[in-house]
Specification:
Blueprint (H helix, E strand, L loop, with lengths): L12 H6 L15 E3 L3 H18 L4 E3 L5 H18 L2
Parallel strand pairs: 1-2
Length: 89
């Protein structure tokens, strides 16, 4: 027995979003902003604004010129993979 869309509406918008979790889903083209961390000391406020905008609009961003060595990034991903592999057992 199917219920009408009117019966499935919630007062809170967040609940209406949640009821679609696990469904077929939709693809949406998004722009993932690249935020330049270069010259950080003199651009703190500008960088903070860019991080806020990206976080509250698309929810994603990519940091560039952050100075973190690629080896450290690779190690962090490896440690994350090991952690989650152990959690599944």
């Amino acid at each position: 027995m199917q219920t009408s869309a009117v019966q499935n509406k919630y007062t809170l918008a967040e609940l209406n979003k949640e009821k679609g979790f696990g469904g077929i889903g939709l693809e949406k083209t998004r722009i993932v902003p690249r935020i330049d961390m270069g010259d950080y000391e003199t651009r703190k406020a500008e960088i903070a604004d860019q991080l806020w905008d990206a976080s509250t609009s698309s929810g994603f961003f990519q940091l560039v010129n952050h100075g973190i060595p690629q080896q450290a990034i690779d190690e962090a991903f490896q440690m994350s993979a090991l952690f989650f592999a152990c959690r599944r057992r």
